[in-house]
Design a protein that fits this description.
about 750 residues; alpha+beta; five-stranded antiparallel beta sheet; four-stranded mixed beta sheet; 23 helices; about 10% strand; globular
Length: about 750
């Protein structure tokens, strides 16, 4: 072989050595060049598509949906309850709106309004991704986008509608001045109270033209726009009031940041609530409360305030007219017919609320919001302000049963577990000192959980709350329907029902027990129909939040409260009871500011709350003995109200309302609970319900030993203390304990920090 041939042979071998290894599998299709090329290709394609859409989508004429129609509300039998939705709109030019108020809207809603091109691409992209992932309402809209949505488009939450909104917003920003856009936004936005536009809102909330509004007032209207029904001061709950004040402060603080307001002027501005709304005549009596509850349910489940206010909806409620009348009649017979404010000033303060729920479907079949919506717009059925007191105790027991909690002595908590029932006994195992008194400061000594529930012994359930872990008790309450407890601190005083709840929430909690531990979310809306919108009604029956055995065991224990406890005279001995098995719990808060009875049969759950709400401002003595002024609507004592001799307990007026309503409402239904448990009063001992009528209110606890019960084991006190064991004991002791009693679970105590909710701390 010659040199040339040898050289060519070497070069050929080198080329063959440099040949790349052939890629196999998925690597043949994905290289960085292909991925990068595909990405840029898709970007160009998206840009081209957007440009085509931009050319093809014109600025439409004003939205025909802006023409308001009536909403029709019907009862479950098809009977028309009410029609709402009268037109309330008046357009004003921007020069009628004081400049500082214009600035407050911009500072709160869109700080870059005067500089942007009408679209917040970052926020809009985030909103589109939320929609695609099914996470609900979109965010990130500029004032221009919101104006376009209000004036040209629908309120539907779809990607197509959002893309149209972007295109039209860009074109509107090019065609119109910022002043025109801001005026359009203010005039087309919905402010609540049926008011479209800032002029109608100024009249609805302050009774004056927009030109006469102060900066404080105008800023409140700006703060409303995010959620008008939730933020209306007249009907807002504590959370709504806190949120709208937060937005009010944010708007003014942003004005300072943007040099539209000096820090000195900002410091002078004080939040003042708006005027009460003028109620439509058709909302008289309970009608307004029913309509209001339906509106709140719809807006909480995705129907915006603006869409609902535009009308065209046919809304059918779950309210059963027969049961609704029974509930109203029961409240009248047991309470309102006995009120005489001229004779007793306290009678003007008494407010009652009730909610009745079918535990199998979650349907709210009857609701009582107050004597008259025309006079008191805040519904007592949904007011979460007042303490549910001892009606919270079943939640503690449910949490203990559900997790198999143990006492401080390592014994599993059951209906026959023995606790120390002495008043003001320090709770053991708590990081916060807590020693709650029992009602009338009664010492019960060693006492079973069953009897402690029957007699509503605070010291036992304070200890049990710690034994069951306070955070788990709180989480159990929230899971069962007491949503007002979400995010609250798990402190020992919570065990006394110190955090507020509404009758509707307590009905949800007990309905979950009645439904064998499956979550029940009460629903007043049966259906909502509209030609242009679809309402997806959530399923009121949820997942298993506590075990069936835990729920049924609590139900079994609660039958003892009715047949041998604080509800015996008003419920167990009611002349219309028949053979119905009943579970329930009474509750009476500190200073007699609230009293409750929440109970259930196999077919129906009803919570009745009664509380003192100051009809007018007054001066009372505080806990420290000093005089304090209670504003109108503040919490006051009910003692002596409705002709009662002293304190109003959950076992008298609320329980009598419950019995008068429930036993007539469930005639012909199921008599007995179907329980999966081997403990509690419903299992052992057996009882025969008394049918003897009794109109005598239950007496408050005293140091006098109770008489033997006709429906169960004797409650006669004994000087021989029971020995803690698995043997059920219904023995109580109101007398001093013997010299050498056994050591019951939960004795002892620690005393570091003070519990802020502890009335004795």
């Amino acid at each position: 072989m010659g040199r040339a041939e040898e050289r060519r042979a070497r070069q050929g071998g080198a080329r063959r050595g440099k040949q790349k290894v052939k890629k196999k599998g998925i690597r043949r299709f994905f290289t960085w060049k292909k991925v990068l090329g595909t990405f840029f290709g898709l970007c160009l394609l998206a840009m081209g598509a957007f440009y085509v859409i931009y050319l093809m989508v014109p600025i439409p004429s004003d939205n025909v949906e802006a023409k308001l129609e009536s909403n029709v509300y019907k009862l479950s039998n098809g009977q028309v309850l009410a029609r709402t939705g009268d037109v309330n709109r008046e357009t004003v030019s921007l020069d009628k709106v004081p400049v500082p108020i214009q600035h407050s809207f911009v500072a709160l809603e869109n700080k870059t309004f005067y500089d942007d091109k009408g679209v917040d691409f970052k926020g809009t992209t985030r909103g589109i991704l939320k929609t695609l992932m099914g996470k609900g309402a979109q965010g990130g809209s500029t004032i221009t986008q919101q104006y376009v949505k209000n004036n040209y488009l629908t309120q539907e939450q779809t990607v197509t509608r959002k893309l149209k909104e972007i295109v039209i917003s860009l074109k509107v920003d090019q065609r119109y001045s910022k002043s025109d856009i801001l005026a359009g936004y203010m005039n087309t936005s919905y402010y609540g109270r049926g008011a479209y536009g800032i002029q109608a809102a100024a009249q609805a909330y302050y009774g004056k033209d927009v030109s006469k509004l102060t900066l404080e007032e105008g800023t409140y209207l700006a703060a409303l726009l995010q959620a008008p029904s939730q933020y209306d001061w007249q009907t807002a709950g504590p959370v709504g009031k806190q949120l709208v004040q937060g937005r009010w402060n944010k708007a003014l603080d942003n004005m300072v940041d943007m040099k539209w307001l000096t820090p000195q002027d900002r410091a002078k501005l004080k939040f003042t609530p708006p005027n009460d709304a003028k109620v439509a005549p058709g909302m008289v009596g309970q009608t307004g409360y029913l309509v209001d509850a339906a509106k709140k349910e719809l807006t909480n489940n995705g129907v915006s305030d603006a869409v609902l206010a535009r009308g065209g909806w046919t809304i059918t409620l779950n309210i059963d007219p027969a049961k609704q009348k029974l509930l109203e009649d029961a409240v009248k017979a047991q309470l309102t017919s006995k009120l005489d404010p001229k004779k007793r000033k306290v009678d003007a303060d008494l407010q009652a609320g009730a909610a009745s729920v079918d535990p199998k479907t979650g349907s709210v079949v009857a609701l009582y919001g107050g004597q008259d919506f025309m006079k008191h717009q805040l519904s007592n059925a949904t007011n979460p302000t007042y303490q549910p007191a001892s009606t919270f105790k079943p939640v503690i027991l449910a949490a203990a049963f559900n997790q198999g909690a143990e006492t401080q002595d390592g014994k599993q908590i059951k209906a026959n577990t023995i606790y120390n029932g002495d008043s003001k006994r320090p709770v053991k195992g708590s990081d916060i000192a807590f020693d709650p008194p029992n009602e009338d400061n009664v010492d019960y000594g060693p006492i079973s959980v069953q009897v402690a529930m029957n007699k509503s012994v605070n010291s036992v359930f304070a200890q049990m709350g710690v034994d069951a872990h306070l955070d788990k008790v709180r989480d159990t309450a929230v899971a069962m329907g007491m949503t007002s407890l979400k995010g609250k601190a798990p402190v020992p005083a919570m065990t006394l029902g110190s955090y507020g709840a509404s009758p509707l929430q307590m009905a949800a909690v007990y309905a979950t027990l009645d439904n064998h531990g499956k979550e029940v979310t009460p629903s007043i809306v049966k259906s909502a129909e509209h030609k242009d919108h679809k309402y997806e009604k959530p399923d009121p029956i949820g997942s298993q939040v506590i075990s069936k055995e835990a729920a049924d065991s609590v139900t079994s224990v609660l039958t003892g409260v009715v047949d041998d406890g604080t509800a015996q005279q008003s419920v167990a001995e009611a002349d219309n009871r028949g053979s119905k098995q009943v579970a329930g719990k009474t509750g009476t808060s500190d200073d007699n500011k609230s009293a409750w009875f929440t109970g259930y049969t196999p077919d129906l759950v009803t919570s009745v709350g009664l509380w003192g709400e100051a009809a007018e401002p007054r001066t009372v003595k505080g806990d420290d003995g000093k005089s304090v002024t209670v504003p109108k609507g503040g919490q006051v004592s009910m003692s002596g109200g409705a002709g009662t001799d002293g304190r109003i307990n959950g076992g008298n007026i609320p329980a009598r309302i419950w019995a008068a309503y429930t036993f007539d409402a469930v005639k012909g239904g199921t008599d007995k609970f179907d329980l999966e448990t081997d403990q509690g009063a419903a299992i052992e001992p057996a009882y025969t319900p008394s049918k003897a009528p009794s109109n005598t209110p239950s007496k408050p606890a005293s140091n006098t030993p109770s008489k033997p019960s006709s429906k169960g084991p004797s409650n006669t006190p004994s000087n021989t203390p029971p020995t803690p064991s698995d043997t059920p004991s219904n023995t109580t002791s109101h007398k001093p304990k013997p010299p050498t009693p056994p050591t019951p679970s939960g004795t002892g105590g620690a005393s570091p920090p003070v519990d802020p909710l502890n009335p004795n701390g």
